[in-house]
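Why does this matter for the project? Reviewers at the last site visit asked to see concrete outputs rather than summary tables. In response, this paragraph embeds two records directly. Each consists of the residue sequence and, immediately after it, the corresponding structure tokens. Nothing has been edited or filtered.
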Amino acid sequence: MSTHGFTLFDTPVGTCGIAWGARGVVAVQLPEAREIETRARLLQRFPDAREMPPTREAEIALNTIVALLRGEASDLSSVALDMQGVPPFHRRVYEIARSIPPGATLSYGELAGRLGAPGSARAVGQALGRNPFAIVVPCHRVLAAGGKLGGFSAKGGVATKLRLLSIERANGSPKLLDGDGTLGFDPVAAIEHLQRSDPVLARLIDAVGPFRMRLKIAPSIFAALAEAIVYQQLTARAAGTIFGRVCALFPQPQEGLKPEHILRISDEKLRAAGLSRPKLLSLRDLARRAAGGDLPSIAEVQRLEDEAIVERLTQVRGIGRWTVEMLLIFRLGRPDVLPVDDYGIRKGFAVAFKKRELPRRDQLQKHGTRWKPYRTVASWYLWRAVELTKP
């Protein structure tokens, strides 16, 4: 008979997993590249586990994790963990790590000192590298000396660590999002409108399921665009690695990139982190404009219409319409954005509408008029249509 249960759940950083037993939570799994791989990692660790609805305690834990990853103030210290089989030294490391509040950090050496074992920083790092309770035991809050990021064993490495720290750091600070990071429109009303206006899209919505898009927090327009520049024309994994290296060049990287960082550092160091020459020049131009006051503030951009934002931000070298549209969707949560030049959108349309060829820009734009004023939601479902075709 199975002694463990597990479930997957959506968060702003992707699909996570949680497993539990009679004594409490036994594992929290950060997202892998695909949901099926997240499930496989949990089953690899607990082959006897069955996928099932969470217990009341597990549901409280996962809801608190989701809230934390939205940038909300959340306390995971009361989550019961089953540490049976965890070595005693690791238990002590995890107990100290759990005392670090969101937005704060310790170094490996400082944590070793709190254990009463100065000189054991390497052993502390090894214990955190084997942490089975990600987020609940916040190993991402433990850094190397000098405020450097150090390592991280989860998918995405230091880029994932940086993202978790940035989310927590943004809590209580000015954000590129309204309120708690929820959408600026009613997704239920949006889906009802799309289902009424387009029967084919209605079938796609039924096949994909609930609308699960989450907004990404950023401390400034500059930080959001700097990340977007690094990610252009690369896979998420490769771009995340490079972005993590760039941020790790500066102290306290969880506070986000700042214009003065980019203006002061040498080309050689940025190139060594993996930036191409064009992206380096784009970041330099972005930093100069931000330092000179040419970029709109968070408060200003919230007041601007979509097209006005596109016009302002595409003046930056290397920032095109598509990049700004991604910002409008995933950072600002604007409801009516349809990136007609996006390959995934065009491919998703061809899949959903059973077209042999990708639609032209004007064809997609014309058909998309029936989705107004919720073309952002339609876009999200078209991206999911491509995923449905993958094994």
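We now turn to the second protein, recorded in exactly the same manner.
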Amino acid sequence: MTAPLFDTRSPSSALRAPARAHRLWSRVGLAVGLMCLGGAAQAQSLTALYELARGFDATYQGAKASYDAAQAKADQARAGLLPTVGLSSSASWSDVNNAAPVADRNVNSRNVAVAASQPLYRPANRLSFEQGQKSLLIAQAQLKAAEQDLVVRTTQAYFDVLAAQDTLTFVKAQKTAVAEQLASAKRNFEVGTSTVTDSREAQAKYDLVVAQEIAAENDLRVKKLALDQLVGKTGTTPHPLTLPVSLPATTPDDVGHWVNLAETGHPGVLQAQNALEIAQLETQKAQAGHGPTLDLTAQYQVSRAPSSTTGNPLRSNTATVGLSFNLPLFAGYAIQNRVKETLSLEEKSRADLDAAKRTVAQATRSAFFGVESGKGQVKALEAAEASSQSALDANKLGYQVGVRINIDVLNAQSQLFQTKRDLAVARYNVLLGGLKLRQASGSLGLDDLNAVNALVAN
């Protein structure tokens, strides 16, 4: 039979209540610690799980493949600035039958030619090459955004598991405490010092905690599956935070700094900026359609064919070097209309850039104030935790001396465990919010992830 938390058969037992309560919480803490140590051997740090996610996550792998494709496409645009060389060959056979008294004969001819061309003045080709480089910068920004998103998603899944574990731990501890209170209420009813209401209230509270325990176990299972799916490994067990937690400061503590950083370095802004520059280059390409082009050409040809007079084979070698000049005079207003089109697209890209800056500025402000609010909430919950613990101790003592009823103790227990759970979640939200702030400003990197990883028990 479980030892009672309080001995209600003697008024002097009230003096021993705090000591027995302390022993109960010590047993609960020891049990929780043993549970954590049991999985410590298989636990992984935040950075270790992020590295696993980098090699497995489909979204990140797709972004990486897109970057590789963009790099190859940018190299294709360089071809317009380099020479082209081609080899051509032809052969023909003819059978000549004459009605006149002239001998029939076969006419065979063959020729091989090597031709080369080097652009000397083609503005459109140079502009296409510059566009390819800008497109590569866009792909780099997209890959950077995917990396930052993976950091946040991994941290979110990591802390989701820790929060679910904390919830389950607190519910189990509450279940143990409520069970003790239920046993105490039943003994008091048996000896006639309390009514059956106390027992029924304690039983109802116990049944509720059992239901909460089932829900917490299922939530933990789901959160672990989500983390496993992200990193491509089953049975992942994140390291818990090292207590006491020292939350990092937001440096600098100025929202204007973060907004300015976002408007110049956020991947979304960089993509829009490069897209605008590509549109401007496209306008220059369209305008270049009015201008001339100049190419250097060279050809070397070897031919063999019968002579028109003797019929004997004749071989000739021809080498040619020249310049090819082309100037469009009229193209049915196609060039003028193309310029109008590109100017409109350029204006659209400029509007997209403004929209991107406004969006990231708003997101950065929200993230900054979210972190500041979260820190204030952590401080308030830390104070609430101490107050809830004091209130629980006072209610337990009051219950023994008869000035409190059983439901008061049960409510105080629920408030304490709810506060502990809210405090743990608030800490995770602050750490995750710090990463989201840096993501919103475009400055999130592995150093920021390492800083958060330093707060977990390794």
